[in-house]
User: Fold these one by one.
Assistant:
Number 1:
Amino acid sequence: MLRLNVTRVGFLMGVSLLLASIIYFFAANWGGLVRADKILASAGIMVLFYGAAFIFSKMKIMLGHHYFLSATFLVGGCIAFGVAVALLNQIYNSHADTYELFLIWSIPALLLSFITRFNPFYILAYILVHLTLWQYFFPSSYHIVHSDHEILLIGCLFALINLILFVLIEAKRLTSAPLKFISFIVFHISLLVLTSSTLYDLYGAWMNIACVAAIAFGFYYFAQVRLDKIMLTLNALAASAFAVFKYLELMSEHASTAFFMLGLVFVALLLTANVFFFRYLNKLGKNDLNSDEQPEQAANTQAEAHKSALFGKIASTIVTVIGVLIGSISLVGLVLLAAGEIPPENILFVVSLLFIIPTLLLNRLNTAVRYTVLTIGYIAGLISIAWIDITALSILFLAVSIVGWFKWQGRVPHLFIYSLININIAILLFQLFGSVQHAASFIVFILTSLNAVIYASHHLLREGALKNQVRECGWFFTLLLLFWLTFMQDIFPYSYELFNILNFIVVTIAAFLFVRRNQVFEAAVSFVFWFIFLAFKYYDLFWTLLHKSITLALLGIIAIAVTYIYAYRTRAGVSEQADSFSRLLRRSPVLIAIVVALQLGYVGYHAAVSEALLSSGTSIKLAIEPLDPRSILQGDYVRLQYNISTPPDHIAQELETRRSNSRIKVVLQQGTDGIYNFDRIYRNGETVTNKEIVINGSTSGWRNINYGIETYFVPEGTGIETEQNARFAYVMVGTRGDALLEKLTKE
């Protein structure tokens, strides 16, 4: 199993690097390829991924490895299709990250998810559908204004979609555990946002009823109708989030000494409820025990009891964190209001010690209450030492924090106090070396080295929970700070480049090493930071996107080749893993082939229609005002504001009465200088003159009109130059009013 996991890590990393290299390459918008070459390249890459999936599915040796590769390349093919669609929009200057991109991309993802029943396709389709809706209502490349009523309907739409999806999974109509959790969480987030009375004056208060009803029903359903401790824990999280949200909302309107006193009382009540809830979950696990059960049934019951205790601790931790947040805010607010002439930071420091020291000595307090009071004290203390800025007090508080580490027990409490210790050390270092040049970079470097030493020294400790927690905390913060270091200024020549290379090498080797050693936590953390590094360095200026693309492609090929050789040499005992992935292409190969053909057909159709418009449309000249942002999939672009985007006042007043994203047709008239200007809204059946042209647009919900030509993609690094020099746009308009942006010019 360990060998199998190592090979899958290698294959997954290799394919991920190849996909990243493809995205980086096309986002670079390299001028060495003409439109036809880019289209053929994107289609060819998509065929290559799907072809690799088919070939690996037919291999008869190393079944577990080949079927896993087949499934990975199948998902990669669907992602490559999305890249191809994004490239088409880049070539023909459609809106950046437009909803049409994600809509078209989501169709094959949905079809493949229903055909294969494969969780990665379910998750990909879920993400794409939500991105489609989000970009439709809140596009990133231009601005749309929505009324409170529209916002309410949009929020309800997101909530309804996720509720329906959750009900389908709960009713066994769909089978996807990740989607079950995601849809439940997003459903409650949607409801919670809609309860904001400050954002939605008319509807926020009424949405509180819907949110409370959903939470109450969740407790009833998951405790009485269908016992599910995981969902019960998530429901407790939703209830806690609602409580904090309402507390912060009320605090913004009614902040006073009495209010903050009530906040501390509320924390006490919350902790009491937490204790009872924790006991209740434990009882749910114990009630399932039965001494007359068969050994296999007894083992399953014991496993369920263990899960009950685990989820109870999770719920207790979540509610404790909520109590800490409210308690800390209440305590700081109370001190600030009641300080009078005494410096509030001094009072806060004394109060923090009064919270911490007695609680450390009282070991018999309820665990949740004890940790909450301690955490509030530590947070208040960190705020006070940063505020007071006296090194001796920072050292004193660091000593108190270290004592807390040895007094606390449990994985989460230790991770939390370890975080506070790191923050304390950072504050102390800033107080000592804050005046040094590039002090922030030096401090992050020192903290990275310190955590690396702590991780390496965990072997000196005795076996036990404390050793494991030192190991986990040390490794997590080593990678976190090392990643942070890749964004800091040089502390010595070429340190920036060195830290980036070091980060990639360390995390890559660590992922393989920990998987091989079966150290789950370190392997998971290494994987997370590996993907985060790959994603964030897209925006980094370490190299150009083109150079990154070539580098990542080579690394991906090497990773797959080396892993394949390793898999071939250690292929014994992996055939039993074949079944879970072999069904993907064997279940419905014809349907999958049809989906692939439809994707290729769309690429060809989109290119043909766009080329036809460019060759037969009417070219018009428009005045522009450019800006210079960036798209994740499509690279640098210039965002354009046209002279025709803002109509005259009498037309603008009419547009305000229309809902956002309403389709309209606009008549443009050519001026004496050859530039087309806004003339009027087109009415069905009216005729236009030779110097007039009709163009399609959509309302923004305010006074602007969007025409779908507000984005012009440029090669990487040339956006600022284009923004400074471009003053006019040449646009091709077809007979039906569709428009394509052809080029930008200075005159």
Note: The radius of gyration is 30 Å.
Number 2:
Amino acid sequence: MVLPPGCAPEALDDGFDAARNGSLVDGGAIEGRYEKRIATLLDGGSRISHHVKTDDGVYELLIDEVPEDLAYDSWVRVPGEALPEAPTGARWQADELQLVAPPPQPIIDATPRDPRRIGTVLVFWDQMGLNNGNATNSMYTDNESTNVYYGEISYGIETMSGKVFGPYQIDMPNGCNTDLIVQRADAAMIDKGHDPTQFTQMMYHFPGGLGCSFAGLASVGSPDFPARNSWYANAFGCNVRNQELGHNYGMGHSHAYSCPAVPMGMDHNLYEDCSHVEYGHPYDPMGNGCGHMNVVQKTYMGWLQECNVVTATSDGVFNLMATELPCNGTQALRFPAYDGRLYYLEYRNGDGPFDNSQPGVLVNIAYEIGGFGPPNYVLDELGQDQNGYLREGDSFTDPGGSGTFTVLALHDTYAEIQITLPGGGDGLPPTCRDGGEPLLDGSNIGSLECAAIPYPGDDTAPVVDLTYPMDGQWFEPGSDFTITAEASDDRFVAEVTLYLGSDPYDTRIDPPWEWDATNIPAGDYVFGVVALDARNNQGVSQAVTIHVGTPSADSTGADETAGSDDAMGTTGLAPGDTGDEDDESSGTTLPQGGELDDGCGCRQRDGGRGGLGFGLMVLGLVALRRRRLRA
């Protein structure tokens, strides 16, 4: 049974008598949305758990087996019975799991993808831990932030956009109840006037002391349909935050094979001699590092496409381009392993802020990539330094004799790799992942077309301009008009905020950048707009002053300052404090005053008229009609 795209489960007529809001069907079954979670455990292991989200709460399923291909947000029916609630939340003893309908289908993706809009909420109960400014820097503004990281490793396909909220004080849960933390953190956001539904992904950071066995926990989705939640138990380093967001996109852990020392020239049998290390990849955050994700993960995410992924079926010399650079050539070079898997070779040249090792070739092994991220391993004890990197002259031979490769040369942007297969292979040309054939560069296989540097972080602020009303313009009392702005950025405008006086009034995350004003009373008013990009670079418009009333006989109808290019900083809208610690922060300097929780931070520039502050007058008389922000 398949849901029409975008339809809610209520559209189904499948014979079940449950309300499709995700509740108890009867005393012996629940229905709701399926969610798999993966925990990064403090003891070095990992744990998979299965959950059903209903309006009655989130139930952890005690179940023997769940289909591997069951997608995040699938609508399921689970016969069984409720168990006494544990400190970690509600539990359901499941007899079986029945698929009612697949998840709603996402809108067709653009290239690059639409920005990932992420909300990060900091909560505490006794003593504050992570502060807003540090969390914002880690997520968006620092040179090694998650925003910059995902932009570089995806070659510009991924953009992280969002805000950090809190720290908010909430009641301490009784045990490691992550779903209760979500409930209380979201309630704190809403109490401050913020809307969690603006964000497609949510990150929840909380202190230690709850007995959680994990540093990070995440629901598992897919690249085009990411899971929503991830949790951080007193941890927010580059490895854990980049990994948990990766789980939201369906990536599993990047493992390693730990192999005993063998005499020079002998190779390991990867099943018999080597042990599995769950977080073994030393350079990949899906393992235990903060460098680029390996090329298996990048292929699964769709960041490597077409002839970026090439499979060798015959002997040849291949150009293997650096994984740090946006390239048209081969960045994942594959040939068969003895056990039905594939070797994925990648070249790291050490460019950029995230990979700073000496250049070399890494060997990964994984199955063909399908709809879910495949288990993948790096052979991390190869090479002269026993750190996984193979240098010029080094070779690797499959233990079952399915092939050998040799590093012939390392260059700034590429490595030359000799592939030798039994009997010379099948004699057919190599194939790209889309079925095409790679280009030749001289006698070598693979294009050398590549960018000179890694995809850079966004250092250019948006440009924003108030287009109506004009500075110095006069209006009759009671007039209606629309404040309009134009905003542009070399990459992406994340949001535009209207400021009245020195305080933010309303934020839009989608164009048109417009605000309707109605029945405006007499007075002089000053306002402007501020635009942010995904890295929270700030563009500030000119300040505009308007007059509402009847011009005097000697007035020209325009302010003497009309046409001035004074920035908001000289007209009462100057950048200043970042706002209270217990509220959102853009991570950069905001116009003075921060964000008001009551949504009405309006003030009259000339307080002498009428004897009332502009905020009180606007509260009753001027309606800036707000659109609900879309997720």
Note: Residues 1-22, 557-581, 585-631 have pLDDT under 50 and may be disordered.
Number 3:
Amino acid sequence: MSYVIKESELEKVLPKKTESLCPECKKIIEADIYEEDGKVMISKTCDEHGFFKDVYWSDVGLYKKAESWAFDGVGVDNPLIKAEKGCPWDCGLCDIHMSHTSLANLDLTNRCNLRCPICFANANDAGYVYEPTFGEVTFMLETLRAERPVHCKAVQFSGGEPTIYPHILEVIAKAKELGFAQIQIATNGIRMANEPGFTQKLVDAGLHTVYLQFDGMKEEDYIGARGRPLLETKKKALQTIREVKGGKLSVVLVPTILNGLNDDQLGAILQFAIDNMDVVRSVNYQPVSFAGRIDQEEREKGRFTLPDMVDRLEAQTDFITRDDFFPVPVVTPISEFLSVMKEEPQLAFTPHPHCGLATYLYVDKDRNATPITQFVDVEALFRDILELAHKSEGKKIKAPMKIKAFNLIRKHFKKDKAPAGMGVTKFLKQLEGLFSSTEKEATAEISWGLIMVGGMHFQDLYNYDIERVKRCVIHYVVPDGRIIPFCAFNTGPEFRHEVEEKYQISFDEYRARHGKDAVPEGEVCE
């Protein structure tokens, strides 16, 4: 048997068929994925609204490499919804979904202290406030922990701007009480930077990780994307994180990348992360997802795909190449290994292979960065670990598995290619967290000596592939108990609007509850 992964059902050929949505009426329609001029394209025709064509991935070689690492998950044992309308219109999770929740987003509010034109959630545009009560948030957290066979271990409070939620400290503490191994917050950093002691309160409540919106090293990039200069605010927020006591916050820098706006900043952002890796653990680039109607010329101008991210990083740094990047499911052999060793399903990252690309960098004391793929044969290592997991299944004595896994790491470690100061013993110590017996260690980043760099490209209606939705591992939990894949919640069916409208309250009602100045006229902020 397989605990958490299985051979993917994806057809690994080009051209091929998939299902998509019409960008106009959102009806499920057939789509073609094919190679053209070295790129992978997606095209589709709606009987009513005509022909649509867009870039799926801008490099066919990387597309095929990613697809070679496709694994499907085993889904959930307790789905809330029975699929009847067809993906993505049945979400809850439904009984045909292929992955459990690796990371859950929980929107605390649609209010914000910024008004970004590229944001998914905006109370001012909606005309109402969506802000679940503490009791509703507690119910949502409990729903995530009840997911089977793998209960959700990581939650990210999001919004809007979650730091302005009235009960932000209480919900973090509740997540800690319920046993979440990773508690995160997606923030613009404004309150952390400007309110003395607030960052310390977040740590004291139980926060582990800050997903910090970070769009570049030039103020004009923030003015273009966010409407105001924010770079110094970001730096100030980082300093408050650096100064916390009695705990440690790790930071993921999250740049939204728009071609022609800030795609020249990827290398500079990564170097900033390396220079600040006493607190920064990762950079997660997010190519922009186009919201609403946009013509083909504008899409061609602004479209930025994961291979574009790789190209910019290769051009803008002197240490990363395209060969260093792998799709997220490459690590699933470790999940299967841990599941066999512990004889119960463990957290597995089984998204569609074209949802994300990433690599790890080892950074020495002089801040020199080397991708681990340059001194470890990653492909051979993970395939051998998967084979070891399958051979060990059903055996009563599990202790030798760990020894054999470490021997495999030694086997595929290239001493002659390793950076100065990095030997196999040190590398083994850095990776030991992956084989930990505790949830928190097993779901945390590997080591403060390593920094992850990668990207996650969320879909829009023009590049929508329903096969990606079926395998999504980043989900939203909502007040009625449904758990909804990211690209169904924000795009396509747009369950976000349905949920927010159902649980909305008016600005006047919000002021009555929280004070007459809680939602100033003309803007939704604090």
Note: The first strand starts at residue 5 and ends at 7.
